[in-house]
Amino acid sequence: MKIDSEDPRITAYALGELDPSEVDDFEKILQDCPEAKSEVDAIRDTITTIKEEFDEAPKKELSEEQKQILFSNEEDVILDPGPGTFSKVNRWLGVTAAAACFVGMGIVGLRSVKQGLQEDSDGVSQQVYSRAVDPTGPVPLDSKEDSKQSSIKESNLPLAEATEKKEKVKEEAKFEQIKQVEKENKPSSNLAKAQSVNESVFSGLGAVEAAPFAQDEDASTHIPSNLAGITQKAKIEFSAQKIAASARSPKAQDLGLELRSSDKRALNNIKENVDLYLGPDEQAFRDGLEKINGEQYQVYNDTPFFPTIERPLSTFAIDVDTGSYSNVRRYIGRRGQLPPADAVRVEELINYFDYDYAFSGDKHPFSVHLETSSVPWKADNRLVRIGLKAKEMKLDKRPPSNLVFLIDCSGSMGNKEKLPLLKKSLVSLVENLTEDDSIGIVTYAGGAGVELDSLQGDQKDKIIEVINGLRSGGGTNGEGGIRVAYDLASKNYIEGGTNRVIIATDGDFNVGISDSSKLIELVKGRAQKEKIFLAALGFGEGNIKDARLEQIANNGNGEYYYIDSIKEGRRVLVDKMSSTLVTVAKDVKIQVDFNPRKVRSYRLIGYANRRMKAEEFRDDAKDAGEIGAGHAVTALYEIVPAGSTSDEGEVAVKSKYRKSAKKSDEGERSDIVESEELLTVFLRYKGPEADIKDEATEFSVPLTDSGKGWENASKDFRFASSVAGFGMLLRDSKFGGQVNYDLLLEIASEGIGEDKNGLRKEFVELVKKAKAITQAKSNSE
Description:
It is built from 26 helices and 19 strands. By secondary structure, it is of the alpha+beta class. The longest helix is centred in the N-terminal third of the chain and has 26 residues, at 159-184.
């Protein structure tokens, strides 16, 4: 079925605004209409490009002169950068002006930005219009770059490091060239004169005429006649166009400024959905673009307090995903923004860090560590930590791995934080494979294909050559790619080894999938029947489908990680190779039985989407979480101590601390067992090779409250509680009590400990930055 290029559903779907009830039907239509798929990709790519520009821009306020231009009613105000200031403001103004053009007036079309980008050999987008300084054209690079690159001896470096050094040399060479041009071409006041804007842009009729920002230093800027009577806001928006004219270097013809009908729709949609007031601060642009963010997160509600007398059992599946933490770090550290509340899954923040739990036995594949203290943010309550530590596995003892990477090479993966970062991370992994391992690569972009039939891990050069040759382009058909990847993994199945499909994507599975439930059914079935598990790696921003990636990883008996840097890629794929790839127990469930004599009510912190019904704990057909070699898993409960045991209420499930007797005539409950225990933790799991019909193993560990305050708790306990508090603060949780940034910094700093990998110190800096962002936001309101 063909789709009219004017169909408004195309833009609504690309921006994630299509009515959920229409999505599945529309995806079926898209599957048969490649032209519409291309339209969707074009819109999403351009929105991503806009967001990248702002994320890379320095967070500096406009000067008083720039503010004057933005808010002036005069039509011929000229920006004079003054000696020595042009090079500092030019790049920022170019970024700001580009967004003003896109969001405010719709001057530059979606297609123009795409045509203004060039791909280097690694697929990294180069914004040719923002780097140029000389108004006569782009700066040519001389042979210095080549000579610098030739000095690198790749044979003496790991391949991933060599690639990084090449890129650094390239950037240094460009910077030197630009500095030289700036020195030779000192800007004058005339250089910043606003340029003439073609009136047809504002008429709304037809395509944009060529060269709307013609490079004529003597041309004066004027508001077109058909804008007479526009509002003050529109005048402010148009003033931003003047800055655009003075800041842009390349000629409009080079950018191919031409609006197609679909581009106009997208721009109108942006304009309608982003009520962007072009104020004196770049943050306004960031906030506006956030409203058209294509990222999707599952609704995540804090678990409430439950009364022990009525609900003595708390049951959940373990979760070793850590994607939420690195995503939160990206928001705060890179974007300078607090993350959306639903992006903050507290248990994933806690479990991102290593804890000094010892593996203390050989009867079970993991040991249990319990500890209590007072709650730092609510002194009258108690905090319980449940820590699991899986048995370690040395790399030389790791079973052989059959790995198939399913790599998203669609158009949305083109920017530097997606496919290029993925390629570097994969190279790091390949360098650590052995001859017993095998690796295959399947790509998908509109269709799926085997890029690399499985090779042994000692054939590193051939594998890396295929990785470096990957390029982005085309639509997305994740379902088809997954089928091909599973088939390849099945063909090379290693009995007794690790058999994994690892999907790497920005999460855009929408195009080409007729029914989302089929994808879940597929990965769950292959994991249960063939013992081929799935892990998911999320990349990039602006389009990440966090909820779906977590969902397919959970159903595929694997983990979900978000990769925000090459450091994180190496942490997941190299430093934690054994825990990422080798599962030591699956379907791991925890059930906590609380003693009503000691506990009035309780609340599980996090794990909102991993909770289970009490009766499901011993239902071995119910899927649960997996734990990898060396993994540490932590769960925290906040407890309200019992004041009395005379509460009314019946319990529908069997509890260790309840008898069948009812309330006595004297008013005391005789059905509550006399015990000083605070709670008992029950654990249930299966071996990694067990079938769904196999019975799970169960054991339990009781806990008596120590009565100590948090100041006397272990360093690991204090640090974990600070991370939990941070998650609640970011979520603005109603259960946060007296939690605040200063308290968290105190607790976290005291809990840093040895910190071998520096991640705890990094967390402290992240809290400081979140505090600064919050304070700045409060001061501006």
